[in-house]
Write a structure and sequence with these properties.
Blueprint: H1 17-23, E1 29-33, E2 38-40, H2 41-57, E3 65-69, H3 74-85, E4 89-92, H4 99-109, E5 111-116, H5 118-124, E6 133-139, E7 145-149, E8 167-173, E9 181-186, H6 187-200, E10 208-211, H7 218-231, E11 234-237, H8 243-253, E12 257-260, H9 262-274, H10 279-287, E13 290-293, H11 300-310, E14 314-320, E15 325-329, E16 344-345, E17 349-353, E18 366-371, H12 383-389, E19 390-391, E20 394-403, E21 409-414, E22 419-421, E23 424-426, H13 428-436, E24 441-451, E25 455-464, H14 470-480, E26 490-492, H15 506-513
Parallel strand pairs: 1-11, 3-4, 3-5, 5-6, 10-11, 10-12, 12-13, 13-14, 25-26
Antiparallel strand pairs: 1-2, 6-7, 8-9, 14-15, 15-16, 17-18, 18-20, 19-20, 20-21, 22-23, 24-25
């Protein structure tokens, strides 16, 4: 797609997610599926409005939750925007979840509707409640997104326009407990975060993003997709990340930027450097304005190597689900970039707090705390988590960091025991409980260990009550947990270290096996 001949102008700023398409120029290209249709903003709005009307006609609107289980593609984007346009709340889920994980998330979110493929709906039929409305989606022969509902239409439902405080999106994020916490994000949260991204990277209608992050993840939804749509630009959507197909897509669609986790960047860098004189390097230089990295720590030496190889700025950022994604970023253009730092606050106030709730001066390490209009007002139905996560209006991230005198944030560790594998948060307690359900396991503790590929990967140590091979326990985890959560290595030990109060000393075990 070549935009040089077009006079492209960014649309006005929206107040709600629905406003994004209402304010866009209908003639501009919005979505390009690498293996599917090309949609203008007008096409996208028509398809979104059609599904929104269908949802309203079967009685879905305000305060209803609609689960979405789809791979990346036009169908996912249309479904997500249509649920919100209908006045309801979108609840996208990871298609790689097990049935047990789907059951929990669907029940916990209170989903009334499930939008998915016929294959996935049939596979989940046994766990879906009878009251669940299933909507099958796919592409028809004309490349249009089609929707078939299991519910009868009851006529138009009067839907009040969404306000900025209405919940548009709910996501589950792993916490220090075994079950994920439910994070509600309002229209204001999403729009403010997306606009912060637009301003940080100076996005315009001439920009083209390549969305390689999954659309069930806040990173893919807000950074790659909503921010691009707010700017009036183009989102190119492959079905999944593939290092072999990546650069041909950049060249074919004149991609100007992409955002990904370090694992993906490293795969692209490795392939480019392995093939001397790689066309990838020339493609990057011809097309990309910048590369963004977020959702997991990026080794400074790799970041510098990437900048030197592709000759474009590589900007490390800091984000989380509770902040509707972006919190901080290294700046573009004349601003200083600091390898090893996640940059400065982007429309977000950042401070360092001690354990007693006092704000620390620059140069002192403590817990990273944040304030801003993009931050959730609190977890749903979880007063304990809210009590522990908010202090004097500051959200406590659980990350340890230090601010320098110029406001650049460097992350140095985590107070919470979450494992982050390629940007995906994993609760070690969830792995513990899965292993403890095995009849041969008397004790279990999961922990993270450093990985040059994924940043961090889960492992576990177990005490046995009956003989069993570690490989059998790995297979047991795979049967009950999504693949990215499963430890590939399980150590069989005589005992698990505990504190005087009986608490498992997870970090002691991690240090022993790291």
């Amino acid at each position: 797609m070549n935009t040089d001949a077009q006079e492209l102008q960014s649309p006005p700023s929206p107040s709600t997610v629905k406003d994004i398409l209402d304010l866009a120029d209908p003639s501009h290209i919005a979505i390009i599926a690498t293996d599917g249709p090309v949609l203008t903003y007008g096409d996208l709005k028509r398809q979104v409005d059609s599904l929104a009307d269908k949802l309203n006609s079967i009685g879905i609107g305000q305060e209803d939750r609609v689960a979405i289980i789809l791979p990346n593609g036009v169908e996912h984007i249309v479904s997500f925007l249509a649920v919100i346009a209908a006045g309801a709340t979108a609840a996208p889920l990871n298609p790689a979840f097990t049935k047990e994980e789907f059951r929990f998330c669907l029940e916990d979110a209170g989903a009334r509707v499930l939008i998915s493929s016929i294959e996935k709906i049939e596979a989940l039929e046994a766990i879906l409640p009878e009251s669940m409305i299933a909507i099958v989606t796919g592409l028809d022969d004309d490349g249009q997104v089609s929707f078939t509902s299991s519910a009868s239409e009851t006529g138009p439902r009067m839907v009040q326009p969404s306000s900025t405080d209405d919940v548009a999106l709910v996501l589950h994020t792993s916490g220090t407990t075994s079950r994920p916490k439910r994070v509600p994000l309002s229209h204001r949260n999403l729009v403010v975060s997306a606009q912060n991204i637009v301003e940080t990277y100076e996005l315009t209608a001439k920009d083209v993003s390549l969305c390689v992050m999954p659309l069930f993840h806040i990173h893919g939804l807000v950074a790659s997709t909503l921010a691009t749509l707010i700017s009036g630009g183009v989102v190119v959507v492959p079905a999944k990340f593939n290092a072999l197909d990546f650069w041909p897509a950049v060249e074919a669609h004149h991609v100007t930027w992409y955002s990904a986790v370090p694992t993906m960047h490293q795969a692209l860098l490795h392939r480019a450097k392995r093939n001397a004189g790689s066309e990838a390097i020339a493609i990057a230089k011809r097309n990309l304005r910048f590369i963004r990295s977020c959702s997991a720590p990026f080794p400074p030496e790799t970041l510098i190597d990437m900048e030197e190889t592709f000759a474009v700025p590589v900007l490390e950022a800091y984000g989380m689900t509770e902040a509707a994604h972006q919190v901080a970023s290294n700046p573009l253009g004349s601003g200083k970039r600091v390898p090893g730092s996640v940059g400065i606050g982007t429309g977000v106030s950042i401070a360092i707090m001690d354990q007693d709730g006092n704000i620390e001066p620059a140069g002192v390490t403590g817990e990273v705390v944040i304030k801003g209009e993009n931050i959730t007002l609190g977890y749903e139905d979880n007063p304990d988590a809210n009590r522990n996560s908010f202090t004097d209006g500051w959200f406590r991230t659980g990350d340890q960091g230090v601010l320098d005198s110029e406001g650049y944030l460097r992350l140095v560790g985590r107070l919470k025991e979450i494992i982050i594998r390629s940007g995906e948060k994993i609760s070690p307690q969830e792995i513990d409980e899965t292993l403890l359900a095995h009849p041969a396991v008397a004790g279990a503790v999961a922990f993270g260990v450093p990985s040059s590929t994924h940043g961090e990967v889960p492992r576990a140590a177990v005490v046995l009550r009956a003989p069993v091979k570690a490989a059998e326990l790995v297979a047991y985890c795979r049967a009950h947990l999504a693949a990215f959560k499963c430890p590939k290595v399980i150590h069989i030990v005589d005992e698990i270290p505990r504190s005087a109060t009986g608490k498992v000393q997870r970090r002691v075990v991690s240090a022993a096996f790291a």
